[in-house]
Write a structure and sequence with these properties.
The complex is a heteropentamer of chains A (380), B (298), C (236), D (257) and E (350). Chain A has eleven helices and 15 strands. By secondary structure, chain A is α/β, with parallel strands linked by helices. In chain A, helix 1 packs across helix 10, helix 4 packs across helix 5 and helix 10 packs across helix 11. Chain B is 71% helix and 4% strand. Chain B is built from eleven helices and four strands; from the N terminus they run ααααβββααααβααα. In chain B, helix 2 runs parallel beside helix 4 and helix 10 packs across helix 11. Classes of the chains: A alpha/beta (380), B mainly alpha (298), C alpha/beta (236), D alpha/beta (257), E mainly alpha (350). At the A-B interface, helix 1, helix 6, helix 7 and helix 8 of A face helix 1, strand 1 and helix 10 of B. The complex binds adenosine-5'-triphosphate (ATP) (2 copies), leucine and magnesium ion (MG) (2 copies). Chain B: It holds the Pfam family BPD_transp_2.
């Protein structure tokens, strides 16, 4: 250009080559993207607790230290993609863990697929998260199973014949799970008319009173209302205020302290399916995890922390088996995860990258989540 | 729709409407005096609710009658602080700068709240007196539903008197048009504006606590949507006019509820209702329902 | 009563007032004349503390005013009827007048003065309930003067009160000025209508591009050739 | 030849009849005055003629070349386009813009090129723009503002702002010019200069001028005919000397010396 | 235009394109993404500045136009297979199911549909003034969002669209940005631009000067909407996923802040501030993270980044009210006589 400078153009785009880190001393970076602010912050925090706990207990693999790079995705899909891009390109992480919330995970999915970075979800249960994405894995069950489990419980244990659905149109998780519940419920009752009403709302809504007025006089035995814990708690509260007294059931999102804080007495008796319970440890690792968790946080662990813990464990197991920090190799090792003993049970990742897990039914009693029953995994 | 169901909707509508009205009055006051859409109003409302929450946590549920007024007083000073920091330095700047500052300070308060209070929602404590379920025939109504309209009405009467009949009220209206000329009348412009803000913030605080009692979850962004809707209520009624704000609040609250009740298919459009109403009213009567038509003197 | 020494004002780069010295003795009418942009309004605004001065002193009965807020200056009894009327357009005529008396506490006196102002400007009384913003230019001018009078000032400063007024009213305004002066008020008057102003003034100052170029008794200035030439338009 | 006619126009604000049944005709090339006490309705009459207010009753006609147009329902910009320009009692310049820009903007209405030619700077537009610049600069020279051409218009002293307002109105190529108190805020000397200026532009631009003014020296000096309004009602109409001696006018407006 | 300016402009342009090439080679895709966002925010900032800054219409409806643009381009460019996967709740309307356009026509269409929307909205709403206009436009943008949330078979509702083809790259984003800059410069310099400014200064006087207020306002609004639509489309096809919630009014505020920081009514200012704001938002990310100094670790606080950002913003608003540039523009004179940035006021005349 006649300026007199020479501009050095690197032969290869530095950042796209994974070898860079070998220079990085003995550190392997793993990215975490979770909602730490915004509507799903409670879940993100709990998950993070589990991940960090695991990192403290098992800080090394292949003789190298593992460094967690944590990004807040602000419970926002856009931020989720941005966070993942940043993790991959600024921090050069080898693998990623996250995120609470299927929609957030799905938003990031395209990115990790494009840049081929293996990612392990802790609790996103929507089938689309891993579908057609060889780089996305998860350590929890999926919603078709969860929907069946909870429908089963409704019909067999609660004796429900008619149900009302209340779903959050903005959450893939909520609409998906409702769909699977409906299918299972109709099959179980053998009655195509068994769903008497499907009511939709959008994340962030606070006033369900009109909707409740609408369904108050419908003859139903149960309300299935999977959704974010905040909206669900408010919904239940207002339902009870209006004198609706039939059981209200939901999915794994409910297991957060916030659900009880907001719902107060109204959520007494609320029933939902989830991944894990401290009351019935399943494996050796469960005990190890529970102990460590009590020691560090001075309370009982919850499902999301446990899944966070497991996601980390599965990941370093894969790194160890791959005997390399090469993302491709980690991915391959992850895909071969078999009977790995996690805190939440034995984990085997199938061709879609999904774990096949058992489910737990819990109930709110005296302001606590109480274990009700255990449901064996169904092999697809 | 049965009569009972209708009554249930009506009760909900009136209660929501008066809540909107209460917050709309605060908007209208500040707008009337500063000609400023105080975008931070919703955030002041949020702060008040959080302070009330921590107050009750600290003092215990029995002492809510201390905690709530304390929160209102705190908010009064907080509102004045916001004015001092974000608006006073821009006293002689174009209106757009002040408006931007309003948006900026609203951002700042929200983000600070996220860091200080945490992004995670909190449950607002409800003293039993507000939470009694009253059964009238087949209609069940929570007692807060009655408190809200009563409080709104009381504040309305007080404010209308204050603004129209007292010298300070007149000074407020004078300041709204011409700072310099107001100064020439020996009016302490800064003091009047600060006072207006304080009063507006008290209204926001009362509204916030009522809101918390009705929709008991606290998140740092909780002021956003109510803030916007109540501003709309104020505009629909005729901004600057307190009675207009009340009218607008009621129309909006009742309208939203009745829309959902009578046309359940349009439930998803509930949040759009406010805006559609706004635009329709503005196009028919550009100064709002109660706003007087003023031909600009050329 | 009011003593101005070496008053300097800058607007950004413009040196609008360059060391003005003026005296306004008690119970006198003093007038300030000068071409457009000479700095007349700026002088009055500086006295009121509306414009930041860059140097000099303004003393009222020996007390320095330069550091005071406008509000305090008004409360001391110095009042300005500003250029361009500046009535409160959204307030009624009556409310405008009430605000004129904002700093006063004597209810009785206010009531009396209100009637006095209505006597001076019957039009205002007819339009008690009209919003000031919708009144004609001249009506607003009457209101502005009336509002200034309501504060019962010791020194009343008027910035071009006859601007845009019909001839009859201009005469009227000058009569009113004389009248209030007779009742003991000190007056500082800015006028384009230099002739009328100098006729009633005890003393006059001529301002040119920010500096006083001429001063003297009103009568003397009236007959001064320079003044005649430049401001009275007589010399044809 | 008649160029403008107001046929019994009336304007009401709420209960107040600001102008009542105002009838007026202007002939080409005349300078006509409109006087009356404050609040008589003079400015309101202007506002009706220029389309700012719509009259409650009556019609307004404008002689456009050889046909008479009813402009009662026209918008202000359409009326200006036809050839009626005005100044405002309270100066309304484009404050933040330069003196030159103020005048250039007044040329915009005669621009034939569309917005895309202007963005693409097509030859037809470039040519028009050049003409606009030249015309504007000439005009500013004519009114003696060429030295302050690049100043912000609000920084001008009052008198020059008034002159700029007139220049801006002239730039729209008017046939009729309405001046609302052009001498307000000027000292007697400046007023007299203005008087000459008005007469001068009438001749140079072949204008018809309709003018509100309170300076009697000016009004009586250059107006050929004068209308007098009081409380919205036309109380007199005639030559300056007729008006000066009209009892009603003296009583309502002029006063006795 | 003085002689030599054209050459200078061409050289500058060439240098800039060279620079983009350089970035392309040296930047990783995270930085590339930010670079892309810079370009897009320039477009959005300028289009809002046209409406708010130059025409003085206080519009807060930009997010709505962006949504229209993003969805238009998204639906036109997505593959039929992708659409089928997205629309699992309710199938997509038939006429869109099979279309798959290349990017350029889709982008153009996004602008056109958005402009059409601007025209339709503008016609009634632009009769309003000031705050009323602001709140009404904000209202329209929210209505658009709510409609998009509810028209399941057209937009996939609240779930949004995932898997948009990632067409946007620096050539598209910066190409469009440069096009927008040139468009604005020539528009503003010309007679129409002056007419818009006149409307901003004083509507009544502008009308008295024969300017058809309505026509000019609608024109400005429609043009603004066009570019907002383009910006939205570029954004959608950059991120690969869109949903109605992205287009809340907070987005409009972000753009408004860019305009204000740059200086309302300054093209140069908007361009600079779009870049500064976009980069700063990312640079401040470190505040949220745990920082390890070796001897001491500072725990990151989630949300701190936004606090600092809004604090910086307030400082600018309070202490540099004119924004970066006020109404000044960059000119070549600045290079040659070092007199600093020239006021737009002082137009040179031959
Ligand atoms: N706010 C301001 N900013 C910049 N310059 C100003 C400002 N106010 C006044 N000026 C300038 O200061 C000078 C004096 O103005 P001032 O208003 O005091 O004149 P004046 O004698 O009252 O004139 P007029 O008869 O037109 O009212 C003028 O050159 C004017 O342009
Ligand atoms: N927009 C309006 N709303 C209400 N009243 C108005 C309006 N415009 C004018 N008026 C009233 O109409 C009457 C005529 O006003 P106008 O401005 O025409 O008077 P004018 O003859 O121009 O007086 P001046 O010489 O003082 O300017 C006045 O009494 C005024 O108060
Ligand atoms: C992460 C979760 C607990 C929520 C839910 N399982 C989902 O996929 O969205
Ligand atoms: Mg002056
Ligand atoms: Mg008038």
């Amino acid at each position: 250009l006649g300026i007199g400078y020479k501009i050095k153009i690197p032969e290869k785009r530095l950042t796209d080559s994974w070898e860079i880190e070998e220079k990085n001393g003995g550190i392997i970076k793993i990215g975490v993207f979770e909602p730490l602010t915004g509507g799903a912050a409670s879940g993100g925090e709990m998950t993070l607790e589990g991940i960090q706990l695991a990192n403290e207990l098992f800080p090394e693999v292949l003789g190298k230290k593992i460094e967690l790079v944590i990004e807040d995705n602000k419970s926002d899909k856009l931020e989720a993609t941005k966070a993942v891009i940043k993790l991959i390109h600024e921090d050069h992480v080898k693998a990623i863990i996250g995120s609470y919330g299927s929609s957030l995970s799905m938003a990031a999915g395209e990115v990790v697929k494009k840049f081929k970075i293996p990612t392990v979800g802790c609790s996103p249960t929507h089938p689309m998260v891993t579908f057609n994405n060889p780089y996305y894995f998860r350590v929890c069950f999926v919603d078709p199973f969860q929907g069946t489990v909870i429908a089963n419980y409704a019909v067999k244990e609660l004796g429900a014949k008619k149900a009302i659905i209340v779903q959050d149109m903005a959450q893939d998780y909520s609409t998906g799970l409702s769909q699977y519940f409906i299918e299972a419920f109709i099959k179980l009752t053998g009655d195509v008319e068994s769903i008497v009403s499907v009511i939709s709302y959008v994340s962030g809504e606070q006033d369900f009173r009109e909707k409740l007025t609408e369904i108050r006089d419908l003859k139903a035995d149960v309300i299935f209302a999977p959704g974010n814990y905040i909206e669900s708690a408010v919904f239940i509260k207002q339902a009870r205020e209006m004198g609706i007294n039939i059981p209200i059931i939901g999915g794994d999102t409910w297991e957060t302290p916030t659900f009880i804080e907001i719902g107060g007495e109204a959520v007494e008796g609320a029933i939902f399916s989830t991944h894990f319970t401290a009351e019935v440890p399943i494996t050796e690792r469960s005990n190890l995890f529970l102990e460590a968790y009590r020691k560090k946080y001075n309370r009982e662990a919850n499902a999301f922390s446990a899944l966070g813990f497991d996601a980390y464990m599965v990941l370093i197991d894969a790194i160890a088996r791959a005997n390399s920090a090469n993302p491709e190799k980690i991915r391959d090792a992850l895909a071969n995860t078999k009977n790995f003993e996690g805190a939440t049970g034995k984990i085997t990742l199938d061709h879609n990258g999904n774990a096949t897990k058992s489910a737990i039914i819990k109930k709110v009693e005296k302001g606590q989540f109480k274990y009700v029953t255990f449901v064996e995994s169904i092999h697809p | 729709m049965t009569f009972q169901v209708f009554m249930q909707h009506l009760a909900n509508g009136i209660s929501l409407g008066s809540l909107y009205a209460l917050i709309a009055i605060g908007y209208t006051m500040v707008y009337g005096i500063l000609r400023l859409i105080n975008f931070a109003h919703g955030d002041i409302f949020m702060i008040a609710t959080y302070v009330a929450f921590y107050g009750v946590m600290l003092l215990g549920m029995q002492l809510w009658w201390i905690a709530f007024p304390a929160a209102i007083i705190f908010t009064y000073f907080f509102g004045r602080l916001v004015e001092r920091a974000a608006y006073r330095p821009l006293r002689n700047s174009p209106r757009i700068s002040v408006l931007i500052s309003a948006i900026g300070v609203s951002f700042l308060i929200e983000n600070l709240a996220i860091v200080i209070f945490g992004g995670r929602p909190k449950a607002f404590p409800i003293p039993p007196i507000f939470n009694k379920i009253i059964q009238i025939g087949d209609v069940s109504i929570v007692s807060i539903t009655f408190f809200i309209p009563a409080i709104t009405l009381a504040l309305l009467v007080g404010l209308v008197y204050f603004i129209n009949q007292t010298k300070t009220g007149m000074a407020m209206r004078a300041v709204s048009k011409d700072y310099e000329a107001a100064r020439l009348m020996a009016i302490d412009v800064d003091k009047i504006i600060s006072l207006t803000f304080g009063i507006g913030s008290i209204l926001a605080a009362v509204g916030g606590i009522m809101w918390g009692l009705k929709f008991p979850q606290l998140v740092p962004l909780m002021g956003l949507m109510p803030g916007l809707k109540c501003f709309i209520a104020a505009v629909v009624g005729g901004i600057g006019d307190i009675r207009g704000a009340v009218l607008g609040g009621f129309i909006l609250g009742l309208g939203e509820i009745m829309l959902v009740a009578f046309l359940p298919a349009l439930t998803g459009y509930r949040d759009a209702f406010a805006f559609v109403l706004l635009i329709v009213i503005l196009l028919i009567k550009p100064t709002g329902l109660m706003g007087q038509k003023l031909t600009e003197k050329v | 009563m009011l003593t101005i020494r070496n008053l300097n004002v800058h607007y950004g780069g413009i040196h609008a007032l360059r060391g003005i010295d003026m005296d306004i003795p008690e119970n006198k009418i003093v007038t300030l004349i000068g071409a457009n942009g000479a700095g007349k309004s700026t002088t009055l605004r500086s006295i009121m503390g509306l414009t930041k001065i860059s140097g000099g002193s303004i003393q009222y009965n020996g007390e320095e005013l330069t550091m005071h807020k406008t509000k305090d200056i008004v409360e001391k009894g110095i009042v300005l009827v500003p250029e361009g009327r500046r009535v409160f357009p959204n307030l009624t005529v009556e409310e405008n007048l009430i605000l004129g008396a904002y700093s006063r506490k004597d209810k009785e006196g206010i009531k009396k003065d209100m009637d006095w102002v209505y006597g001076l400007f019957p039009r205002l009384k007819e339009r008690l309930w009209q919003k000031a913003g919708t009144m004609s230019g001249g009506e607003q001018q009457m209101l502005a003067v009336g509002r200034g009078l309501m504060s019962k000032p010791k020194i009343l400063m008027m910035d071009e009160p006859s601007l845009g007024l019909a001839p009859l009213l201009v005469k009227e305004i000058f009569n009113i000025i004389k009248e209030i002066h007779r009742q003991g008020m000190t007056i500082l008057l800015i006028e384009q209508n230099a002739k009328a102003a100098l006729e009633i003034a005890d003393y006059g100052y001529v301002l040119e591009t920010g500096a006083i170029v001429l001063e003297g008794k009103g009568k003397d200035l009236l007959t001064n050739d320079e003044v005649k030439n430049a401001y009275l338009g007589d010399a044809k | 030849m008649r160029i403008l006619k107001a046929d019994n126009i009336t304007m009401k604000f709420g209960g107040l009849v600001a102008v009542s049944q105002f009838y007026m005709e202007l002939n080409k090339g005349e300078i006509v005055g409109l006087i009356g006490p404050n609040g008589a309705g003079k400015t309101t009459a202007f506002n009706m003629i220029t389309g700012v207010y719509k009259p409650a009753e009556g019609r307004i006609f404008f002689q456009d070349e050889d046909k008479e147009v009813d402009i009662t329902e026209y918008r202000p910009d359409e009326i200006t386009k036809l050839g009626i320009a005005r100044t405002f009692q309270n100066i309304r310049l484009f404050k933040e813009l330069s003196v030159l820009d103020n005048v250039l903007i007044a040329n915009h209405l005669r621009l034939k090129s569309d917005v895309f030619s202007s963005i693409l700077r097509l030859p037809n537009y470039v040519k028009e723009e050049k003409e606009m610049y030249e015309k504007s600069i000439h005009l500013l020279e004519d009114v003696g503002l060429q030295d302050v051409m690049h100043e912000k218009s609000s920084s001008l002293p009052y008198g020059k702002q008034r002159r700029l307002e007139i220049a801006r109105a002239l730039a729209t190529n008017p046939k009729v010019l309405l001046l609302d108190e052009p001498a307000a805020g000027m000292n007697p000397k400046e007023s007299l200069e203005l008087m000459d200026f008005v007469g001068d532009i009438r001749d140079r631009f072949q204008l018809t001028i309709f003018m509100i003014e309170h300076h009697m020296q000016v009004v009586m000096g250059i107006c050929e005919r004068i209308f007098v309004l009081d409380h919205g009602v036309t109380i007199a109409h005639g030559t300056p000397s007729e008006i000066q001696n009209n009892e009603k006018v003296i009583e309502a407006y002029l006063g006795v010396d | 235009m003085k002689k030599g300016r054209l050459e200078l402009n061409i050289i500058a342009m060439a240098l800039f394109i060279g620079l983009l090439f350089l970035f392309r080679i040296t930047f990783d895709s995270y930085k590339m993404k930010i670079l892309n966002l810079c370009g897009i925010y320039i477009i959005l900032g300028l289009s809002l500045n046209l409406i708010n800054g130059f025409t003085g219409l206080f519009s807060l409806g930009h997010a709505g136009f962006m949504a229209v643009g993003a969805y238009t381009a998204g639906l036109l460019t997505m593959s039929p297979a992708m659409k089928e996967m997205n629309f699992f709740m309710k199938p997509i309307v038939p006429f869109l199911a099979e279309v798959e356009w290349p990017f350029f026509p889709a982008l153009l269409m996004a602008g056109v549909i958005s402009a059409l929307m601007g025209f339709l909205i503008g016609s009634p709403v632009l009769k309003l003034k000031d705050d009323y206009l602001a709140i009404a436009t904000l209202g329209f943008s929210e209505i658009i969002r709510v409609i998009f949330t509810n028209t399941q078979s057209l937009t996939n509702g609240a779930l949004g669209l995932k898997g948009l083809p990632i067409y946007t790259n620096i050539w598209w984003s910066w190409g469009a940005a440069i096009f927008t800059i040139l468009f604005m410069v020539f528009l503003i310099k010309g007679s129409y631009g002056k007419a818009l400014k006149a409307i901003r200064e004083d509507e009544i006087a502008a009308e008295a000067m024969g300017i058809n207020l309505f026509k000019h306002k609608v024109m400005s609004f429609t043009m603004g909407a066009f570019f907002a639509g383009i910006g939205g489309a570029l954004l959608g096809n950059l991120l690969g996923t869109i949903d109605p919630n992205m287009f809340r009014f907070v987005l409009t505020f972000n753009i408004l802040l860019i305009v204000v920081l740059g200086g309302i009514g300054s093209i140069t200012g908007t361009v600079i501030s779009a870049v500064v704001v976009t980069v700063a938002m990312e640079a401040l990310r470190v505040l949220d993270e745990t920082i390890n100094f070796g001897f001491v670790t500072i725990q990151g606080i989630p949300g701190m980044r936004m606090v600092i950002f809004s604090l910086l913003l307030m400082i600018v608003i309070l202490f540099y009210q004119q924004g970066l540039m006020g109404t000044k523009e960059f000119t070549w004179d600045w290079f040659f006589n070092g007199k600093g940035f020239r006021k737009t006021l002082k137009k040179e005349v031959k």
